[in-house]
Amino acid sequence: MEMHSPQSLYAVHGISIGRRPRSRPHWTTFLAAILSKLTASLKAELRVRRAIAELAGMDDRMLRDIGISRSEIDSAVRRPPQPDPWALHRRSPQTEN
User: Fold this and answer.
1) Residue among 56, 33, 44 nearest 80 (CA)
2) Total-model pTM
3) pLDDT at position 42, please?
4) C-alpha span between 62 and 58 (Å, rounded)
5) How many angstroms separate the CA atoms of 31 and 34, rounded?
6) Helix (H) or strand (E) holding 64
7) DSSP 3-state helix, strand, coil percentages of the chain (rounded to 5)?
């Protein structure tokens, strides 16, 4: 049996041998993505717990000043931030000539 190089296969038979593209990333890429997401989730949970502990350390008057009650601490910290409804109505601090 005669062995051909990729160049001779094309020259003699018109066959092109190229590298096949990978259909999916290597398993280490998946592992790195999972570990990255896990790390980000853990850091976010630690930030939430620190914020809850800080608010729980405040007295009721201070909580009332920021607009929450003691029973709302957990949900206030965990809910997504709401957009400011008055942001469009405020004027920018530009000086007028």
Assistant:
1) 44
2) 0.56
3) 96
4) 6
5) 5
6) helix 60-66
7) 55, 0, 45
14 backbone φψ class: left, alpha, beta (φ>0; ψ -120 to 50): left
Whose CA is closest to 72, among 50, 59, 54, 55? 55
Q: What is the pLDDT along the chain (97 residues), one digit of tens a residue?
A: 566 565 666 666 666 666 666 666 688 888 999 999 999 999 999 999 999 999 999 999 999 999 999 999 999 999 877 787 777 777 666 555 5
3-state secondary structure 73-92: HHHHHHCCCCCCCCCCCCCC
Taking the CA atoms of 37, 43, 49 and 52 in sequence, report the sign of the dihedral they define. Answer: negative
